[in-house]
């Protein structure tokens, strides 16, 4: 308000107050409203590209895989470790596009399984037998008393 009084006292026209308010509204538009609209448009385009098999996170931070999309009803069915849940499309917070992770994971698992099992099978079996027979248990302590 002091700014308006200073402008009025200096002989500025009464339109300077209105100009100041208009400048503030324009600044608010460019600093707040415009970025929010861009974010909403980006989210809508992401939802329009949603496909079966995509990994998503809901607004409640529930992670799942898209099983079915019903665009007419605006719903999506998520597979959350065997539990199928139906959500509104707007409940999807983030979308991670499906990747080739299952193929590489199965390849690496097949590669690691023979080497890991051949190395760890023999020492585990041999070391487990003497440890079980030599170690006293809690039941042994109770029977001694």
Automatic annotation (TrEMBL):
GO terms for biological process: protein transport. GO terms for cellular component: plasma membrane. It is found in: Cell membrane. The chain crosses the membrane at residues 12-32. Keywords: Cell membrane, Membrane, Protein transport, Translocation, Transmembrane, Transmembrane helix, Transport. It is a single-pass membrane protein. Residues 101-127 have a biased composition (Polar residues). Residues 101-145 are annotated as: Disordered. SMART domains: YajC (SM01323). Its main location: membrane. The keyword Transport applies. Belongs to the YajC family. PANTHER family: SEC TRANSLOCON ACCESSORY COMPLEX SUBUNIT YAJC (PTHR33909:SF1). This is Preprotein translocase subunit YajC. It comes from Secundilactobacillus kimchicus JCM 15530.
């Amino acid at each position: 308000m002091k700014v308006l009084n200073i402008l009025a006292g200096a002989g500025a026209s009464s339109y300077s107050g209105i100009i100041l308010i208009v400048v503030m509204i324009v600044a608010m538009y460019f600093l707040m409203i415009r970025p929010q609209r861009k974010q909403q448009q980006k989210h809508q385009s992401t939802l329009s590209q949603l496909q079966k098999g995509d990994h998503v996170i809901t607004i409640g931070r529930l992670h799942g895989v898209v099983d079915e999309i019903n665009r007419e009803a605006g719903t999506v069915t998520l597979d959350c470790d065997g539990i199928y849940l139906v959500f509104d499309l707007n409940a999807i917070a983030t979308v991670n596009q499906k990747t080739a992770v299952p193929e590489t994971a199965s390849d690496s698992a097949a590669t690691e399984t023979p080497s890991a099992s051949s190395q760890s099978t023999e020492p585990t079996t041999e070391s487990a037998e003497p440890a079980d027979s030599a170690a006293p248990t809690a039941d042994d302590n109770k029977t001694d008393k």
